[in-house]
Amino acid sequence: MRENYRTLIQASRNAKRRAHAPYSGFHVGAALLTSDGVVFTGCNVENSSYGLTICAERTAIFKAISEGKKKFKAIAITSDGTDVTPPCGACRQVLWDLAGNIDVVLDSHSGIPLQMKLESLLPIPFSEKRLKAARKRKS
Ligand code: THU
Questions:
Q1: What spacing in Å lies between the alpha carbon of 18 and ligand 1's midpoint?
Q2: 57 part of the active site
Q3: What atom of ligand 1 comes closest to residue 27's alpha carbon?
Q4: Cα separation of 5 and 116, whole Å?
Q5: How far, in Å, are 26, 68, 70, 76, 128 from residue 34 at the CA level?
Q6: pLDDT tens-digit profile, the chain (139 residues)
Q7: Which site among 2, 17, 43, 74 is 20 to 30 Å from 23 CA-CA?
């Protein structure tokens, strides 16, 4: 790992234990590190109306935003999967919008986490910038 995110990974493992996943049985935990060093954790919370389920990553970032945090450094993700669990497409977009190009650290059962920048998982992203540019063109 380019940075030592060991503590962040441990926080995501603890969060995974709180997953509410009675339908898929797939437990996910996430831990989001703010620029000022605070960690917000999240787990997936499933719903009997399946589409209302929220992923661990979005739980974590919505918790942080709702507590007034605006700048982020990294997110660690742990799951039940046999290998690493990269964030789903919806979470990539939400993380990009709210956290920007943070480090993404994927816990792995081999013990060697995978680390990358969010931009490598979401090339050519849609963002607020494009909305602003369109508005400007119209005016
Ligand atoms: N899930 C997450 O929490 N994060 C991901 O990045 C992938 C999927 C959850 C959603 C659902 O509760 C379960 O994993 C199976 O898709």
A1: 13
A2: yes
A3: 14
A4: 12
A5: 26, 11, 8, 12, 21
A6: 557 899 999 999 999 999 999 999 999 999 999 999 999 999 999 999 999 999 999 999 999 999 999 999 999 999 998 899 999 999 999 999 999 999 999 999 888 999 999 999 999 999 999 999 999 998 8
A7: 74
